[in-house]
Design a protein that fits this description.
70% helix; mainly alpha; 9 helices; two-stranded parallel sheet; single chain
Length: 191
């Protein structure tokens, strides 16, 4: 059996036609992500073999769906900060420094929720971190070999490292709740 993998649909079509032209039958030509999704779906069916229900495959988020899910996660963090600010202000002894810190964080989250460009950059950063097996903190700190290549897209997030980690956790939680994966999750889950 022959398996041919590529990262682009276009090259899969070209290779498939070339193999058919030379008469090679039975070769499986696929993108890496399509194969990964098939493996995930197979694993889910196999896991549910003892069950009366076959689990639905995960939803694969489009770029727009991923950005919308990220935006909702960020807006949840805005609401969380608003509640925290209210709690602090309701105390008899209000810690103004803590309130100001939370107000700044909330403001940054709001700005991010309104910027599709920054949301795309953040999603790309998350995906790059997974694909390169580079911890997000190393990319943000500039201690990764890849940091120089990513410098322009990382720059807006460097001073908000802790908040970026918080956003990633909230985004991943949103994906789990929706039984959704993005392109970056596919290969990792298939392995």
């Amino acid at each position: 059996r022959i398996l041919v993998l590529s990262f682009s649909k276009q090259s899969v079509r070209v290779v498939g036609k070339a193999l058919a032209k030379i008469g090679l039958q039975g070769a499986h030509v696929s993108t890496v992500h399509a194969l990964a999704l098939k493996l995930i779906q197979h694993d889910r069916r196999h896991t549910a073999a003892g069950s009366t229900k076959t689990p639905l495959p995960p939803t694969v988020l489009s770029d727009i769906q991923a950005r919308n899910l990220l935006r909702r996660a960020v807006l949840d963090l805005v609401r969380d900060r608003t509640r925290e600010i209210k709690k602090l202000r309701d105390r008899k002894k209000c810690d103004l420094a803590a309130v100001n810190r939370l107000v700044k964080q909330r403001s940054w989250f709001r700005d991010l929720a309104d910027s599709s460009t920054d949301q795309n950059a953040l999603l790309n950063l998350f995906a790059f971190s997974r694909a390169s097996h580079t911890p997000l903190r190393d990319l943000l700190n500039g201690s990764s070999a890849y940091a120089g290549q990513l410098a322009p897209s990382i720059y807006p997030f460097r001073e908000h490292r802790d908040l970026v980690h918080e956003i990633r956790r909230a985004f991943n939680e949103r994906k789990r709740e929706a039984d959704a994966i993005d392109i970056g999750d596919m290969v990792r889950l298939a392995l």
